[in-house]
Write a structure and sequence with these properties.
heterodimer, A: alpha/beta, seven-stranded mixed beta sheet, 13 helices, 23 strands, 23% strand, B: alpha+beta, nine-stranded mixed beta sheet, eight-stranded mixed beta sheet, 20 strands, 25% helix, 30% strand, globular
Chain lengths: 483, 400
C-alpha cells in the first residue's frame, strides 16, 4: 500500500507558508506544493537567480523570515509542481492529491489538505480588451518589481482598488508616462468616510497608500474617480484607449467619452478567489460579495464541507496577504491539533493569540471589498465583443443562449462552449455571471458558478499514461467483453 | 397559503429523452413542466460524445425503434430551427482476435437484414478507412456506416428552446422528493421547491429511476455504472475520419482489487479538432459523478496504444456520469401498471438516437393512451428481464 501523508498544502504563498510553518513546528509532516520555481506566491514572489534584483521591498525582511522557517525537516517543498486534481483516497477518510511536476504525474494519499492557492487578477471585457498591450495590474507589477521591465511607455490604467494604485505608482516611479488612472468605483467617495475606524492599526497600509499618492502628486497624474475604460483599438497592438464617466449603475454617461493615444492599458479590477480546486472536489460554496463571489463555506477552523479539506487565504475569499497569513497559521495549528500534535489547550491558546489580528484583518478586507467590488456595466458593448477568449465566444452568442432559456452560467457554458477551453472559465465565468444577471434582472449569485473538472490545468496525455499512485499499481490487460 | 400549481404533464429529468418529450408534448398543446434536480444534461446525456448510434441496438426488440428514430434526423435540425452539429460519420471497431469478431457475428447477420449495414473489415483494409490506426496485430475491424454524431447539449437545447417558446416551464435545480398518489392515481409531485400537480407524470430519469421507484414501492430492474471520458486540446495535425472503438479492454484497480476501471477505447474528433476519448467504466450502483484518479490514466493508456501521436496532446478535462443498463438491453417505456398516470421513459441504450421517437411515443401515450409508431410491449416497465447479450453487464475481475 501507499504511504499515507499527514498534510498536503496546495500553494506556497502567504497562507500556505504560514500554515506549513505552524503545522510543522508542532510536529506535522508537511508537503508544500507550488507551481513556481520557488515558494512565495504572488505576494512574496521570489525570482530565479538570473532575475534577482537588489530591491528592498517593505515586506522583504518578513518574507525572508518566512523562507528561512520553511527550512524545517518536517516540511518537504515540491516546486514547479501543479495539483491537477483531488480525489477520494484508498483508505477511509483520506484524499488522493494528483500532481504533475518535473518528474511526471504522481498521486499523494493524505489525511489532510489545505487549499491555499490564492487569487488571480480580475479583468473586465470591452471591445479591444483582447489586443496585445492590454495587461492586468498583477502582470504589470511582476514585470516592474521582479523583472525590471517597463510594460510600455504611454499607459492608461483602469480598475478599482489598491492593486491598480500600486501598479500606477510603480509605473510612474519607473519612468512611464501614465496618461490617466481611472478608479471605476464610486464607493470610495460614497462610503469612504464611515470606514475610517477600520484603518486603526493599519499604519503600514496607510504609509503605503500615502506613498502612492505622493507619486501621483509629483507626476501630476490624472486620477479620475468614477471613470472606466470603454474600448480600445489599434492595428495588432493597442494604440488608442477610450474612457468615460460612469453613472451610478456603472453605465458610461453619453458625451463624457475621451480618447488618448497609448501603447499599454493596465486593468486592475480587484481579484478573483482561485476556487478551481474547491469547486472540483466539490466543496459546498457560498456567495460572499465582499470577498470576490462564490467561495468554499468554512467552519471556524477553516475546514470546508469536505472533512479533511481546509481552505486558507485568498482562495477562500479575497482578503489580502496579512489576513491570509493569520488564516494560514490558524489552519496549520487546527490540523496539528486534529492529528494529535497539539492539545486543545495549546490550540485554543493559538486561536486566542490570533483573534485580534484575525478580526482586524477581516474588518479591513470587508472595507476593501465594499469599496472596490464595483465593475462597470458591460451591457452597452457591441455584440461582437469577445467574452470567452479561449473559445472565442462573443457577447452576442452569450445573449442568444440566454434568449434560448439558459438560466445559469452552466447552461451558457453548455450551449456556447464558453469556459470549456484551457482555462475552464477562469476569466470569463465572472464576466458571464454579470451579463446573465443584467439580462435576467436577477442578482449575480442566482447564475451559480461553473463546476471544474480534472485536470485543473492541461496535462499531456503521456504524463497521465505514466501516472503513479501506489507502489503496487499494476495494469491487467484482459480480453474485452465490453462494447 | 400556496396554491398548488397544476400542469397537464410533469416530466422529471432534463436529459435528451426528457427534453425531446417536452418538445413533442408542448407542440401537441399540453401544459407541461420539466423538473431537473441539477442542470439540463447534467447526467449521462451531457457527458457522452453525441454518437447517433445504430449498431449498438439490442437486436431482439430495439431494431424498429432505432431505424425509425434514425430517419427523423434527416429533417430534425430544420424542424427545430437550430443546428446542433449533426453529421454522418462511420464507426470502426478494432478487433484483436477472431473471438472478438465471433462475439459480433450475430449482429453482422441480423443488422444488415434490418437495413443497418454492419461489415467485417480485414486488417489490410483498415488503413484505407482510417489511416491513423496502425493495423499491425489486429484481426480486423467491424465497420458501420449508418451512424452520426452531434453536439448533445445543443441537441437538448434545440428541443428545449422550442418547448419553452410553446410554454414549457423548466425548473432546473429542483429535486423530486416524493409523489402524491390517491386511490392508485398519480396526483402530485413533491419537490424541494414545492408541490405541483399533474394528470400525468413521466419519469425520464435514467440512472435515478430506481431510487425514484423506491419512493413508489417499485423495484424496477434498472442498473447503473459510471462511465468516464476526456477531451484533448485541438490537434490540427491529425484528422480522424471515423469514430474508433476497440473490443479489447484493460482493467486498472482504483483503490483496491474489485474496484477497477474497465477501459475500452472510444475515440472521435470534433469539428474543432478536439479528441474525445472514452470510456472507462467503473462498476457499482453509484450515482456519484466524481471521477476516479485512475480513469484519466486508463484512458490515456488506451488512446496512446492505438494513436501514439496523441501522446503529446494535452488533456483539457475529464468527466464521469452514472449510466444505466438493463439485463435485456431494452428501455423501460410505457405506462406503469397499478399507478394511473405514471409513464416511464428510461434506460435507453442509445438515448441520442432514440430521443426523437421516444418523444413522439410518449406524446401519443399521453394524448391517446397508446402508440401506433412501434410495438412497445417488449419495453414494458414491469417485464421479466431475460439476460440477452452478455456485454451489458459490467463486472471487474476482482468481484467474480
Amino acid at each position: 500500500m501507499s504511504t499515507i501523508r499527514e498534510l498536503v498544502i496546495v500553494g506556497a504563498g502567504p497562507a500556505g507558508m504560514q500554515a506549513a510553518i505552524a503545522a510543522a513546528s508542532a510536529g506535522v509532516q508537511v508537503i508544500l506544493i507550488d507551481s513556481s520555481p520557488l515558494p512565495g506566491g504572488q505576494y512574496y514572489k521570489q525570482l530565479p537567480r538570473p532575475f534577482l534584483s537588489d530591491n528592498q521591498d517593505s515586506h522583504h525582511e518578513h518574507a525572508h523570515q518566512l523562507f528561512s522557517h520553511l527550512a524545517n525537516p518536517h516540511i518537504e517543498v515540491m516546486t514547479e509542481t501543479m495539483v491537477w486534481g483531488i480525489f477520494a483516497g484508498a483508505n477511509a477518510g483520506t484524499w488522493q492529491v494528483a500532481t504533475y511536476g518535473p518528474t511526471g504525474c504522481f498521486g499523494l494519499e493524505t489525511k489532510k489538505i489545505i487549499l491555499a492557492n490564492g487569487a488571480y487578477d480580475r479583468s473586465i471585457s470591452f471591445p479591444g480588451w483582447d489586443l496585445p498591450g492590454v495587461i492586468t495590474a498583477g502582470a504589470a507589477l511582476t514585470m516592474l518589481k521582479h523583472q525590471h521591465f517597463l510594460p510600455g511607455k504611454r499607459i492608461l490604467l483602469s480598475g478599482s482598488g489598491p492593486l491598480q494604485m500600486a501598479a500606477a505608482a510603480w509605473l510612474i516611479d519607473s519612468g512611464a508616462e501614465v496618461v490617466a488612472v481611472l478608479e471605476s468605483s464610486p464607493n470610495l467617495i460614497k462610503h469612504g468616510i464611515r470606514y475610517l475606524p477600520a484603518l486603526t492599526a493599519q499604519t503600514a497600509r496607510i504609509r503605503e497608500g500615502l506613498g502612492y499618492l505622493r507619486s501621483f502628486i509629483k507626476a501630476k497624474t490624472n486620477y479620475k474617480f468614477g471613470w472606466s475604460i470603454t474600448s480600445c483599438s489599434g492595428a495588432g497592438q493597442v494604440q488608442q484607449a477610450t474612457f468615460a464617466k460612469l453613472d451610478s449603475r456603472g453605465l458610461p454617461i453619453p458625451g463624457t467619452k475621451e480618447t488618448k493615444e497609448v501603447d499599454t492599458v493596465v486593468l486592475g479590477y480587484s481579484l478573483n478567489p482561485n476556487t478551481s480546486l474547491s469547486r472540483m472536489v466539490p466543496c459546498e460554496m457560498e456567495f460572499q460579495h465582499l470577498r470576490g463571489g462564490y467561495v468554499p463555506r468554512r467552519n471556524e477552523n477553516f475546514e470546508t464541507s469536505q472533512p479533511g479539506i481546509y481552505a486558507a487565504g485568498d482562495c477562500a475569499g479575497v482578503g489580502g496577504a496579512p489576513l491570509s497569513e493569520v488564516e494560514g497559521r490558524i489552519t496549520g495549528s487546527a490540523i496539528a491539533h486534529q492529528l494529535g500534535y497539539l492539545s486543545i489547550q495549546e490550540y485554543d491558546a493559538i486561536r486566542e493569540k490570533e483573534a485580534g489580528s484575525l478580526a482586524r484583518e477581516k474588518r479591513f478586507a470587508d472595507v476593501l471589498g465594499d469599496l472596490f467590488s464595483f465593475t462597470p456595466d458591460l451591457s452597452s458593448m457591441a455584440g461582437a465583443t469577445i467574452i470567452c477568449r479561449c473559445e472565442q465566444i462573443s457577447l452576442a452568442e452569450i445573449r442568444a443562449a440566454i434568449a434560448m432559456g439558459a438560466q445559469t452560467v452552466t447552461d451558457i457554458k453548455n450551449i456556447t462552449r464558453s469556459g470549456m477551453g484551457n482555462c475552464q472559465g477562469r476569466t470569463c465565468a465572472t464576466l458571464i455571471a454579470g451579463i446573465l444577471a443584467k439580462e435576467t434582472q436577477r442578482p449575480i449569485q442566482a447564475g451559480g458558478f461553473l463546476a471544474t473538472r480534472p485536470p485543473i490545468h492541461p496535462v499531456p496525455l503521456s504524463a497521465l499514461e505514466n501516472y503513479q499512485y501506489h507502489e503496487d499499481s499494476s495494469v491487467q490487460v484482459q480480453r474485452g467483453s465490453l462494447e | 397559503m400556496n396554491k398548488t400549481k397544476t400542469f397537464d404533464v410533469i416530466i422529471v429529468g432534463a436529459g435528451v429523452i426528457g427534453c425531446s418529450i417536452a418538445y413533442y408534448l408542448t407542440q401537441a398543446g399540453f401544459k407541461t413542466a420539466l423538473f431537473e434536480k441539477d442542470f439540463v444534461g447534467a447526467g449521462a446525456s451531457g457527458a457522452n460524445f453525441g454518437m447517433v448510434q445504430s449498431n449498438d441496438v439490442a437486436i431482439q426488440h430495439s431494431i424498429p425503434m432505432v431505424t425509425t428514430s434514425y430517419q427523423r434526423f434527416d429533417t430534425l435540425e430544420e424542424q427545430l430551427g437550430m443546428r446542433f452539429g449533426f453529421r454522418r460519420i462511420a464507426s470502426l471497431r478494432l478487433l484483436a482476435t477472431e473471438a472478438d469478431w465471433q462475439f459480433s457475428a450475430e449482429r453482422a447477420r441480423i443488422l444488415p437484414e434490418a437495413g443497418i449495414p454492419y461489415e467485417f473489415v480485414p486488417p489490410e483494409r483498415i488503413p484505407e478507412i482510417e489511416p491513423l490506426v496502425n493495423p499491425r496485430g489486429l484481426y480486423g475491424a467491424s465497420y458501420c456506416s449508418y451512424q452520426a454524431q452531434l453536439n448533445p447539449f445543443l441537441y437538448m437545447w434545440a428541443y428545449l428552446q422550442n418547448a419553452i417558446r410553446s410554454g414549457l416551464e423548466l425548473h432546473s435545480y429542483t429535486s423530486v422528493i416524493n409523489f402524491g398518489i390517491q386511490n392508485g392515481v398519480m396526483k402530485t409531485v413533491v419537490t424541494d421547491k414545492g408541490t405541483f400537480s399533474a394528470g400525468i407524470v413521466i419519469l425520464a430519469t435514467a440512472a435515478w429511476t430506481r431510487p425514484l421507484g423506491q419512493l413508489l414501492g417499485r423495484k424496477w430492474d434498472i442498473h447503473t455504472f459510471r462511465a468516464s471520458a476526456m477531451v484533448t486540446e485541438p490537434v490540427a495535425s491529425l484528422n480522424l475520419r471515423t469514430i474508433v472503438t476497440t473490443a479489447q479492454h484493460i482493467e486498472i484497480p482504483v483503490n483496491s482489487q474489485g474496484d477497477s476501471e474497465l477501459t475500452v477505447l472510444a475515440i472521435s474528433q470534433t469539428a474543432d479538432g478536439h479528441f474525445l476519448i472514452a470510456q472507462a467504466d467503473r462498476p457499482g450502483e453509484v450515482l456519484c459523478d466524481a471521477i476516479s484518479h485512475v480513469a484519466p490514466k486508463a484512458m490515456a493508456i488506451m488512446a496512446a496504444r492505438y494513436f501514439p501521436a496523441l501522446r503529446t496532446a494535452r488533456m483539457l478535462r475529464t468527466w464521469t456520469a452514472p449510466t444505466t443498463y438493463t439485463q435485456d438491453g431494452g428501455p423501460l417505456l410505457g405506462y406503469v401498471d397499478g399507478i394511473d398516470g405514471l409513464i416511464l421513459a428510461a434506460s435507453f441504450r442509445s438515448a441520442i438516437i432514440n430521443a426523437p421517437l421516444a418523444g413522439e411515443i410518449v406524446t401519443q401515450l399521453v394524448s391517446q393512451g397508446y402508440t401506433d409508431l412501434i410495438d412497445i410491449n417488449p419495453f414494458s416497465p414491469e417485464r421479466e428481464m431475460i439476460a440477452a447479450e452478455t456485454f451489458y453487464t459490467v463486472k471487474c475481475s476482482g468481484k467474480k
